[in-house]
Specification:
Layout lengths: L4 H6 L1 H11 L5 H18 L8 H19 L7 H21 L5 H8 L3 H18 L1 E4 L2 E4 L10 H14 L3 H12 L4 H8 L3 H20 L3
Length: 222
């Protein structure tokens, strides 16, 4: 039996989860195979005496492998379903621009399209990356593509941000909404309490509890 067979089977949902959360718009099956490579690398390097779970340790390896592949593969494959979703988002954004007389937030677009704000963000980022990675820029008189300027394909700074988003995704619906309103929409605790129909002291207590949990989980990531 292949030594990786059991671990691939048990971590299949983790790979698909990373793809669905951060790489919407690309060929899922292609990225799954790449994610498996990252998983096998993590399996070979993981030490059982580490203080973090294997799934947590493997997370950055899977993400890093897929991220590197996406940034070095041309042409990027975009699913027809993602294109349709993207078109729906753009229509909603244009309509909201006319109504609000300003650029709408991802939260407002999400409400208008009955989508999750993070899904809106993922689709927009995926479609924008297609243009940005192949776009020609000028560097001291030499034309190079933007992708050639990426020194670390795993982009650990971005990974830190994605770990944070993963933690937010794991919150309860109420906690997630509270955090989104406070830190993505920049609402005050008083404003959030009115929007959620609760007391400001409850908002403050929940916010502190959630932030402490996120901070503790984040510090345990290897």
């Amino acid at each position: 039996m292949n030594k990786y067979e059991d671990i691939i089977s048990s971590c299949s949902n983790l790979i698909y989860g990373i793809i669905n959360n951060y790489f919407k718009g690309y060929s899922t099956e292609d990225l799954y195979q790449v994610g498996v490579i990252g998983l096998m690398k993590a399996y070979d390097k993981y030490k059982k005496d580490k203080s973090v779970k294997f799934s947590t340790y493997a997370y950055k390896w899977i993400y890093g492998e897929i991220y590197s592949y996406v940034n070095t593969s041309r042409p990027l494959k975009i699913s027809s379903e993602s294109i349709k979703i993207y078109q729906r988002i753009i229509k909603a954004r244009n309509r909201l621009c006319q109504i609000l007389m300003r650029e709408p937030t991802n939260m407002e677009i999400a409400l208008a399209t009955d989508m999750h704000p993070f899904d809106v963000e993922s689709i927009l980022n995926a479609m924008e990356n297609i243009d940005s990675l192949d776009r020609i820029i000028n560097d001291d008189g030499k034309e190079i593509s933007l992708i050639d300027t990426i020194s670390d394909k795993r982009d650990y700074d971005k990974m830190d941000y994605l770990y944070l988003k993963e933690e937010i995704n794991n919150l309860s619906p109420l906690e997630r909404k509270l955090i989104y309103l406070r830190f993505f929409e920049d609402k005050t605790q008083s404003e959030v309490s009115k929007l959620l129909g609760t007391h400001q002291v409850d908002v403050s207590r929940t916010e502190k509890k959630v932030l402490k949990r996120i901070r503790n989980n984040y510090q345990n990531v290897a």
